[in-house]
Structure to design on (717 residues):
């Protein structure tokens, strides 16, 4: 009972951003709870649209606590884990990142069903909200930095949901991504190298982190930027959530304003995916890329040229964005947004290429703009 | 060869022609020493020029209102150029003379150049042709010149081009015959010069039409993705559309022509239209593409006789270009069966 009182008082307090992060750590330790965090980008403040979206609610309260931290309490029927305690915990916090305009952080210690429902609510708000994707190598870098900066003596991957990019089906011309889950009990570098060798990427990675002197946590980090932890919250927040917020902010800057119609002279602003090696030198590789692109079910893909150079036209079914996709160099794919090329559609296209073909470094096109 | 294969080849030729024009014009537009685009060079495509009185009548006595070279360059140093691109020539060499008659019509004191007087003192005449044809075309020209059938007063050159890959994708240009008045460029093209395709990516992505009628499936695809799609996207149902659902869009032929011209023609390179610079695409091309939509049951005319405005039933088509290619192939030939797209053979 005392524990619930402590949680109640936590919800009654008017937290600033910093207090929220610091004090949540105590809540996790006292109640053996898991904190779940979703960073995302939104054109409008979620306090405006969140009350209108999601499952039918029994009740909802929304209040701004302090420094733009919004606390929501919502009760919805039908969750499998419904009981009185669960209902008490259906609070969540949202605030806009102090440095990155439009980037929001959603935090809750409620159960996973409730959190997934919130995630779906955010996704349904598309195109006004966008989450992100964390590349395989960046994921490794985040984990390595976490281990080094936070004095983690032992970091063991306990469960991993991963995907392997496979070759082209000769019959259909389509490439495949094979999902699987494993419990590798491997060290960090070993697990990443193993998956890299399989031409794969982690969808979600779960691990235990034990500090040298005190503190341990079960942590999970997803490719879509979702973070879960049972402890070490300030460290997890600093090493994972903050960099993911920065990544969202950088991607919004990089992918926005690319439509030709945004520019008075209708010129193009292409983006380049640089694989760093001559990835597309062989015809089989170009065929594999085309096969991977054809798997994009949320767009129309027209192949204008397949070999030796590749020229595709991608027309996004969600918002009508149109892109020319070119392979004119063995190490690069160039994306040219046409009259409409939204941030969301570019993000979706690049994410698809990374998921189904290969990951690369995204950069500005350095050629001439017509 | 199947009907669909023929269409894919036509599309490939059409796009190669645009790439060749852009690549060749770049030799004049780009300052190789300063590594910048020159602002004192004007290029144009599909411009109508008026012949001199001496060449204003055909051999049959018919008046020639204008000639329309595929490309032109007005150079600040007087190294002006007019030329045509003929990627392929017919098997029957008897028909080749038409191409040279056309080129000879540019060998004239033409008016309508994009300058205040409309005239230039002299200019070169250039034929761009694919490397696989270049030697035979050159031999043909030499024979015809010897026979007195073909003659040029102004500098004339045959420049071959081909698309290739030596590390990076490029177009390779090489002089096969004659000479250009720009000595530096003439020397450069004597040895041959590769221009990297990725340098022109912006032009390739914004210029998709020139003044020759494109293959109809290609134009239909361009309209569907860039005009109809953009209008349909404004409908709230668009993002949630299921396989058999449609969004109804009303569009006029004039709108289609205007949008394509503004977004995908050479107009961005040569500026606004004048009497000498007609709109590309003309409405007649767009009407033909819209007729294809009607035959595919994707649209219907408000007035079948006028063909000015139509109601389009936009739906998701996973490979739009292939859809229209197959539709046209079925109209013109037997079922295509297993197809290998040109430029898609990777063996």
């Amino acid at each position: 009972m005392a524990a619930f009182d402590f949680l109640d008082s936590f919800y009654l307090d008017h937290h600033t951003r910093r207090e929220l992060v610091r004090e949540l750590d105590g809540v996790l330790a006292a109640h053996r709870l898991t904190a779940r965090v979703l960073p995302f980008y939104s054109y409008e403040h979620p306090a405006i649209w969140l009350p209108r979206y999601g499952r039918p609610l029994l009740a909802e309260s929304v209040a701004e606590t302090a420094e733009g931290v919004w606390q929501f309490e919502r009760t919805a029927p039908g969750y499998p884990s419904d009981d009185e305690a669960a209902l008490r915990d259906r609070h969540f916090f949202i605030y806009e990142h102090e440095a990155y305009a439009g980037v929001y952080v959603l935090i809750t210690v409620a159960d996973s069903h409730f959190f997934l429902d919130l995630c779906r609510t955010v996704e349904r708000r598309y195109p006004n909200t966008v989450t992100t994707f964390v590349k395989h190598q960046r994921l490794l870098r985040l984990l390595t930095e976490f281990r080094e900066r936070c004095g983690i003596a032992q970091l063991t991957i306990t469960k991993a949901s991963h995907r392997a990019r496979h070759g082209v089906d000769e019959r259909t011309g389509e490439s495949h991504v094979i999902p699987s889950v494993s419990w590798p009990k491997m060290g960090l570098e070993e697990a990443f190298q193993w998956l890299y060798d399989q031409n794969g990427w982690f969808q979600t990675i779960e691990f235990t982190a034990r500090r040298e002197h005190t503190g341990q946590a079960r942590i999970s980090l997803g490719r879509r930027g979702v973070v879960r932890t049972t402890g070490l919250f300030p460290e997890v927040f600093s090493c994972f959530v903050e960099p993911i917020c920065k990544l969202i902010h950088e991607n919004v800057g990089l992918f926005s304003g690319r439509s030709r119609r945004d520019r008075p002279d209708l010129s193009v602003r292409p983006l380049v995916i640089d694989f760093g090696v001559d990835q597309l030198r062989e015809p089989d590789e170009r065929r594999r890329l085309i096969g991977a692109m054809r798997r994009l079910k949320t767009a129309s893909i027209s192949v204008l040229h397949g070999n030796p150079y590749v020229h595709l036209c991608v027309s996004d079914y969600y918002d009508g964005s149109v892109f020319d996709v070119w392979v004119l160099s063995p190490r690069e794919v160039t994306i040219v947004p046409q009259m409409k090329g939204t941030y969301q559609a570019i993000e979706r296209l690049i994410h698809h290429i990374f998921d189904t073909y290969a990951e690369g470094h995204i950069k500005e096109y350095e050629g001439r703009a017509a | 060869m199947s009907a669909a294969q023929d269409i894919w080849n036509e599309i490939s030729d059409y796009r190669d022609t645009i790439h060749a024009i852009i690549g060749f014009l770049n030799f004049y537009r780009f300052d190789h020493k300063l590594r910048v685009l020159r602002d004192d060079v004007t290029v144009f495509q599909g411009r109508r020029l008026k012949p001199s009185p001496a060449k204003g009548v055909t051999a049959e006595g018919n008046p020639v209102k204008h000639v329309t070279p595929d490309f032109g360059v007005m150079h600040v140093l007087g190294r002006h150029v007019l030329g045509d691109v003929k990627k392929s020539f017919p098997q029957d060499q008897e028909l080749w003379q038409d191409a040279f008659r056309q080129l000879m019509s540019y060998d004239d004191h033409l008016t309508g150049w994009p300058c205040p007087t409309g005239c230039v003192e002299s200019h070169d005449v250039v034929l761009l042709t694919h490397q696989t044809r270049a030697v035979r075309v050159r031999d043909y020209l030499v024979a015809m010149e010897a026979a007195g059938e073909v003659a040029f007063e102004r500098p004339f050159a045959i420049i071959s081009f081909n698309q290739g890959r030596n590390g990076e994708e490029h177009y390779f240009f090489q002089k096969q015959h004659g000479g250009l008045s720009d000595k530096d460029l003439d020397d450069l093209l004597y040895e041959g010069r590769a221009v990297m395709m990725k340098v022109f990516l912006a032009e390739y992505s914004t210029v998709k039409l020139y003044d020759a009628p494109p293959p109809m499936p290609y134009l239909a695809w361009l309209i569907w993705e860039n005009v109809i799609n953009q209008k349909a996207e404004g409908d709230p149902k668009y993002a949630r559309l299921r396989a058999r659902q449609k969004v109804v869009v009303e569009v006029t032929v004039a709108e289609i022509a205007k949008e394509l011209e503004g977004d995908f023609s050479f107009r961005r390179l040569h500026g606004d239209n004048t009497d000498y610079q007609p709109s590309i695409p003309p409405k007649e091309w767009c009407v033909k593409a819209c007729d294809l939509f009607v035959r595919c049951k994707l649209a219907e005319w408000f007035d079948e006789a006028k063909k000015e405005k139509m109601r389009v039933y936009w739906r998701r088509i996973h490979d739009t270009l292939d859809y229209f290619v197959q539709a046209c192939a079925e109209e013109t030939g037997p079922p295509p069966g297993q197809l290998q797209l040109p430029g898609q053979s990777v063996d």
